[in-house]
Amino acid sequence: MADEDGGQSKPAPDKGQSDLRIKEHPILGNMSENKKTVNITVDGRQIQAVEGEPIAAALWAQGIKELRQTPKFGENRGIYCGIGRCTDCMMTVDGIPNVRTCVTPVAEGMVIETQNGLGRWS
Q1: Could you say which of 1.10.530.10, 3.40.190.10, 1.10.3210.10, 3.10.20.440 is the CATH number of the domain covering 24-116?
Q2: Residue 12 pLDDT more than 50?
Q3: Of 6, 55, 62, 98, most Cβ neighbours within 10 A?
């Protein structure tokens, strides 16, 4: 299948099968040096993340883009502003609902759940 520039488009990666993180940057250099990998659980599935990166970035890197559902229609939402001002990235983290995952850093052993509407306290 050709894209707009006439090149071949690439199929989307399988969830959890590839890492979408930037590893080399022309100005910042090697982006993966001295990064500790931690294990987190997302909707019952164990994944690896880089300690300290925003939860939403860790999920995006694993192909997980739907973070919550709207209360009225159950529509999926993901990262929108990326700076903690909107509510589209809210998830339940370690039993606490309405955590803005775009600004909350990953830590070892976190349990993260997709949130439906306003979430519920565990």
Answers
A1: 3.10.20.440
A2: no
A3: 55
